[in-house]
Specification:
binds zinc ion; 5-stranded mixed β-sheet; binds 5'-O-[(R)-(carboxyoxy)(hydroxy)phosphoryl]adenosine; Nucleotidyltransferase, domain 5; alpha/beta
Amino acid sequence: MLILGLETSCDETAAAVIEANQKIIVLSSVVSSQIALHSKWGGVVPNLAAREHLKNILPVIETSLQEARITAKKIDLIAVTNGPGLIPALLIGTNTAKTLSCVWGKPLIGIHHIEGHIYANFIDRAKSQNNKKIKFPILCLVVSGGHTQLVLMKDHLRYEIVGQTLDDAAGEAFDKVARILGLGYPGGPAIAAEAKKYRPDHARQKQKTTLPRPMLKSKNFDFSFSGLKTAVLYTVKKNPQILKDNGLISALCHEFQQAVIDVLIAKTRRAAQKYNPRTIMLAGGVSANEELRIQMSQTIKKEFPRAEYHLPLAGYSIDNAVMIAAAGFFRWQKMTSAEKKAAPNNWKKLTTDANLKLK
Ligand code: KG4
Ligand code: ZN
């Protein structure tokens, strides 16, 4: 089947077409990013985001159909993010999807944004290539700008949140620390790039600050990142010289990134020990972080050699619409024939919820 996915929950206007049968193959993925617009404010401004989504959504959809070389007629299903996220932004996506569903007479499904991130792991490589079959139970570490959660899945679409952040999300901490250090928005890639420049044998960088690893030793699977961000703030306040010294900035970025990674790995390890998953996967924007990917891989290989490690294909960690379409496919498969028959009328009742719960 051919599925059109739409995503507007934050600052990316995205549309994609997938072909989903035995495999999930990407026919097109168009993402119009608003980074340049929001970077001067140091974060996403909801009303500005909505205005941009409104301007871009139809051209983005048109381009996604053109790149997939299909017409709207061929679409079998529309899947749209209906929460959580910024409400003015979400509404552009859901209202567009509802209108298209009504006018085109196509079935419509609402997708939880985090469900989309998780299902980014189920996007396959090219049709001709072999793909890894993902085995349940899955332990998924979801790390995005808005969420940090350890999710246990015993089957498709069944989620048990076994741990989550008590305050800031991991991506949010990257963004806030980047702001403190004047590195711009989004903070994750900027901090990762600075951290890469760090040379431990460099004399001056040796005196780098040690930051805390919040909740590293606590017995649960929860996280907390706001204290870590505050520790960076105090470090810089105590020593403003850091901001003028590229070497010290990269040392601080390296230490911050490592503190986040240490906590993420420790909690994933603890959860894996308890739940014994057959697959451990990463999802969400922070899963694009190269150091996290590598260090998690090393830990799993060494400590959980029987578990498979799975990551989204390159480009599908951060917000995109392919992941929404992919999740739509799995939802569609679980629907009864009566539900499928009624799906072209879903535009009448689909709700948009900024605080939608994963269930
Ligand atoms: O999943 P995502 O695109 O949007 C949300 O659902 O929030 O995640 C965006 C977050 C931002 O906080 C961004 O700084 C972070 O992901 N991020 C990264 C990297 N790339 C994006 N964090 C660390 N390292 C990266 N390479
Ligand atoms: Zn996201």
